[in-house]
Specification:
Strand order of the largest sheet: 3-4-9-8
Oligomer: single chain
CATH class of the largest domain: Mainly Beta
Distance between the termini: 82 Å
Helix content: under 10%
């Protein structure tokens, strides 16, 4: 049996929508007819930082966003095809919307993240949270 629905997000080929009609349309069910691709992503740590590198060449400022909520870092955006083409002879470069999410295993100091886009790579450096001492107040029993 040929599989008609595929991808991480639910997407359906036109044959499925045609068979089920408007009741199964993308608009009604919140499905997307546009694929979202995931760029290659590396995550590593240094002694004091977590580093995430995302390979997204060909972007301009405003083509991508970086967000951090808790320990989840998300990079999303869109790489636009730079020129109209009659027909592809070979197609390996992905265009369109992209998104990658990384669940970071370290507690992070979220006050001063650094993101640098250079030579097609977006490098995000987040300082790990430092352990801090918590003073303990001793209460003495005065009834004894």
């Amino acid at each position: 049996m040929r599989r008609l629905c595929y991808s991480r997000r639910v997407e359906c080929k036109p044959e499925v929508i045609h068979v089920y009609g408007e009741s199964f349309s993308s608009r009604r069910w919140g499905l997307s007819s546009e694929a979202v691709w995931q760029p290659p992503t590396d995550v590593y740590e240094t002694d004091d930082s977590a580093v995430v590198i995302v390979e997204i060449a060909g972007l301009r400022p405003g083509d991508y966003q970086v967000s951090l909520i808790g320990r989840v870092l998300e990079v999303s955006g869109e790489r636009r095809d730079p020129a109209a083409k009659l027909a592809y002879q070979q197609m390996e470069i992905r265009y369109g919307k992209f998104r990658t999410q990384v669940q970071l295993p370290w507690a992070l100091d979220q006050t001063d993240p650094v993101a640098v886009y250079e030579d097609g790579f977006l490098k995000i450096t987040l300082r790990k949270a430092q352990a801090r001492r918590i003073p303990v107040r001793v209460v003495r029993d005065t009834t004894a």
